[in-house]
Amino acid sequence: MSGTFTNGRASPSHSEAGPTVFKPRRPEFLALIVAIYAALVLNQPFWRKFLEVVEPSRFSDWLHVGSAVVSIVIVAYLVLLALSVKPLLRIVVLLFLPAMAAAAYFMNEYGIVIDAHMVRNVFETDTGEAGDLITLKLVAYVVFLGLVPAVLFWLTPWTKQSFRSEALGKLKAAALSFVILVVVLVPAWGDFLSLARDHRKLKMTLTPVNIVSALSAYGRQMARMRPKSVAPYGEDARRNAFSGGRKSLFVIVVGETARADHFSLNGYQRPTNPGLASIGDLINYGQAYSCGTDTAQSVPCMFSGFGHDLFTNAKADGRENLLDILKRAGIDVVWRENQAGCKGVCARIATETLTGHNVPTFYASTVNFDDILVDGLEERIAKLDRDTVIVLHMMGSHGPAYWKRYPEKFETFRPACKDAQFSRCDLEGIVNAYDNTILYTDHVLARLIDVLKGAAGHGVDAGMIYVSDHGESLGEKGMYLHGMPYAIAPEAQIHVPMVVWLSPAMKESRGIEQGCLLGRSGSRVGHDNLFHSSLGIMGVATRVYDPSLDLFAACRKPAS
After folding, report:
1. CA distances to 32, 139, 146, 153 from 22, in Å
2. Distance between CA atoms of residues 228 and 316, nearest Å
3. 247: closest CA among 466, 509, 555?
4. Which pLDDT band holds residue 429 (cuts at 50, 70, 90)?
5. CA-to-CA distance for 27 and 10, rounded, in angstroms?
6. 335: left (phi over 0), alpha (psi -120 to 50) or beta
7. CA geometry: angle 427, 284, 560, nearest 5 deg
8. What are the tens digits of pLDDT across the range 311-351?
9. How far is CA 104 from CA 42, 100, 141, 146, in A?
10. Measured between alpha carbons, how far is 32 from 6 in angstroms, rounded to an integer?
11. Which pTM value belongs to this model?
C-alpha cells in the first residue's frame, strides 16, 4: 500500500482518488504526448507536402526538416501547456483530435487543403452530398486516430499535486521548451519565412492551425454577411422592346464541376459531347474561366455583377443581383434547383426545388437526374405569356460519387469507379466515372436545345447559355475534387466549359450575326460575362450594364 499512516488511517497517495486502469501521469508529460501525436501522426499530409517542397538530399536539408519537426512539436506543446487546466485540456483534446483526424483523411484522400472556402462548403453541403463523403475509411480515421486517443487521454488520471507544485512544473517545462525552440528556430527562421511565403498551401495543410484559421475566417465572413437590408442594384432597369411582338425565353444553365478539357468540343479525345457536337449553330467558348473554385463562391459571383476581381460573398449577400434586375424590368424569373441550393441568389424570385423530390423523371429513379430540369419545359413554353428567364441549376458532375450523377445507360466509359473513397479505385475508373457525367450533361443540354428549337412554333424567341460553376481535379499531383484557394488553384478547377445557343428568331430580333459570334468564341471569357450578356440578350437597359462584357454586343448589326 502506498502512502503513510496517520492516526491509524492511510493518507492519500499522490494520485487521483478512486480506482483507475491507468497510472497517474503529470500534466506536462500528458501534454507532451498529445503534442507529439498531433504534430507527427495527425499531420501526415503536412509532412508529405513539406518533404515535397524541401526535397531533402544533403545533411543540411535534413537538419532543416529536423528543426521544423522540433519547432512544430514544441509550439503545440506550449499551447497545450497554456490550456492544461484539467477539464479544459480534456475537452480541447476530445474536440480537436477527431477533427484533426477527419481533416487528415480528406487531405490524404482528395489532396484538398483547409481554408474558409472549404469550411463554407462543409456548412453549406446538403445531407445527400455529405452522405457521399462518409466512408468506412473516414469513420476509421475519426474513431481510431481521433476518438480513441482522446478517450485514453480523458481516462488517464493526473498525478495529484498542490496548485503551486503543478504550476511550477508547467512553468519549468514551458521555460525549457521555449529555450529549445529559440535554439532550433532562430537559425532557420529566414528559411521558414521564405517557405511560408512561397508555398501558401503548406499552412492550409497544418492542423489544427488550418482548422482554427479557417473557422475564424468563415465566422468573420458570416458576421459580415448578415445585412439588415439588401441594397438595391440597377434601379433604373427598363426594357428595350424588340420588333415582332414575340415573347422571349432565355435559359441560364449553371453547370456543376465540369472541367473544360474533358469536353470533346474543346479537343478532348473521348467523345463526351456527341449531342452538342451535332448542333451546327452552337457557339463553344473554349477559353472560359470561373469566378471561384467552389459553388458557394462561383454561383453568387456570376450573378452579382461585381466580377471576379471585386467579388466577396459579403458584398454579394448585401446587394441585389442579376435576377432582381431582370425581375424589376418586368421579366418573369424562375430558378429550378437540382443541387444544394442557390447560395442566396434566388432569395427574392420564384424557386422550384426539385432536389430530393421523388417525382417521375425522364429516366425513372429515386434520385433525380438532371433531366428533371428539362421535364415540363415544352408545356411551359406553350403557355408562356411574358418574357421569361429560367435558371437551371444542375447536379452535373458533383463528386466524389460521380457514378450517382447519370443513369446507367450513360455508363459508356468503363470500368467506372463506384466508391467515394478514391483510394479504392484506380485513376482510370475515377476518370471513366467522371467522363460519364460529362456525357450525361451533354445529353441534358442537347435535349434542352431541342426543346428550345420547338419554341418558335409557339411564337417564342429562345436561347440558352451554359457554364459550369467550377472545374475538378482528377488526380493531378495527387489532388482530387475542388475548392482550392483561387490564387493557387490548378487550371483544372477554374477552366470551365461554356456554350451558347440562340434560335434564328432570337438572333434576327437582336440583330446578332452568327459568324461574328463564332469568330470571337476563342476569346478568354467567363463568369464575369454572364451578368451583362443576360441583360443584353433580354434588352434590359441600365447604367450597371457593361457592353464590353456582353458576349453578344460586339456582334449586333448597327441599328438602321
Report:
1. 17, 26, 19, 10
2. 14
3. 509
4. very high
5. 25
6. beta
7. 170
8. 999 899 999 999 999 999 999 999 999 988 899 999 999 99
9. 6, 6, 8, 10
10. 36
11. 0.82
DSSP state letters, 434-460: HHHHHHHHHHHHHHHHHHHHGGGGGTE
Find the helix or strand (DSSP H, E) in which 296 lies.
Answer: helix 295-304
Give the integer Cα–Cα distance in Å for 6 and 24.
23
Q: Residue 462: name the closest of 433, 432, 421, 501 by CA.
A: 501
Those residues with Cβ within 8 angstroms of residue 290's Cβ, 6 or more apart along the chain or in another chain: 298, 467, 468, 469, 470, 471, 493, 494, 495, 496, 526, 527
Q: pLDDT band for 21, please (50, 70, 90 cuts).
A: low
For the chain, what is the total number of helices (H) and then of strands (E)?
A: 22, 16
CA dist., res. 287 & res. 526, Å (int): 8
Could you tell me which residues come within 8 angstroms of residue 433 by beta carbon, excluding any fewer than 6 positions away?
Answer: 402, 403, 413, 416, 417, 418
pLDDT exceeds 90 at position 195: no
The CA distance from 386 to 110, in Å, is 47
Average pLDDT over residues 210-220: 84
Lowest mean pLDDT among 170-174, 243-247, 521-525: 243-247
Q: What is the mean pLDDT of residues 354-364?
A: 59
For the stretch 496-517, pLDDT in tens is 999 999 999 999 999 999 999 9
pLDDT for position 12: 44
- Residue 393's nearest CA partner among 449, 339, 445, 353 is 339
Question: CB burial class (10 A; 0-12, 13-18, 19+) of residue 128?
Answer: middle
**Quick one: 544 exposed, middle or buried, by C-beta within 10 A (0-12, 13-18, 19+)?**
middle
Q: What's the per-residue H, E or C state across 459-506?
A: CEEEEEEEEECCCCEECHHHCEECCCCHHHCCHHHHEECEEEEECHHH
Q: Mind listing the pLDDT tens digit for each residue in 41-91?
A: 999 999 998 898 888 888 888 888 899 999 999 999 999 999 888 889 999
For residue 54, how far is the Cα from the chain centroid?
A: 28
114 contacts 204 by C-beta, under 8 angstroms: yes
Exposure of 123 in the CB half-sphere (CA atoms within 13 A): 13
Could you tell me which residues are beta bridge partners of residue 480? 474
Residue type, 97: L
pLDDT at 466 over 50: yes
Q: Which residue has the higher pLDDT, 22 or 170?
A: 170
Element (H, E) at 332: strand 332-337
For the chain, what is the radius of gyration of the CA atoms?
29
Catalogue the E-assigned strands of 221-300: 238-239, 247-255, 283-284, 288-289
**Cell output for 165:** 507544485
pLDDT at residue 418, rounded to an integer: 93
Taking the C-alpha atoms of residue 552 and residue 50, their distance in angstroms, rounded to an integer, is 48
Residue whose C-alpha cell is 493531378: 476
